[in-house]
Design brief:
Layout: E1 10-13, E2 25-29, E3 33-38, E4 44-49, E5 53-59, H1 62-66, E6 69-76, E7 83-90, H2 92-109, E8 116-118, E9 124-126
Antiparallel strand pairs: 1-2, 2-3, 3-4, 5-6, 6-7, 8-9
Amino acid sequence: MKSNVSGAIWQDRKRTVFGLPWSFTRYFITDEKVILDIGFLSRTEEEIRLYRITDVTLKRSFCERIFGLGTIHCCSGDKSTPEFDIKHIKNSRATKEMLSDLVEKARNERRVAVREFVDADGIEHED
């Protein structure tokens, strides 16, 4: 796939039937942001800065596991995109680890911290 995002460290396409990349959803990760490029005729490009991502979770359904795929679910402090998924990608575990490392690096460079606290009922919260 030819990248139209300069400086992309990683890129892939959402995969559909039998794990084939027959989709008009593309994902890019640079050293500063995650870009979701969605659509064919009408396109939407969503950009989330890495330092705003607060949680990264790997989800792998039975069908995804059969075809060697996974979905990375991200929670962020971005107002327009508080949650997003990088759906049905190959090498999902390695990609999740790479994304987690890049998020941590971006947060450290900007000195951004997420504070977790436990309330009186023993439930953890992020601040």
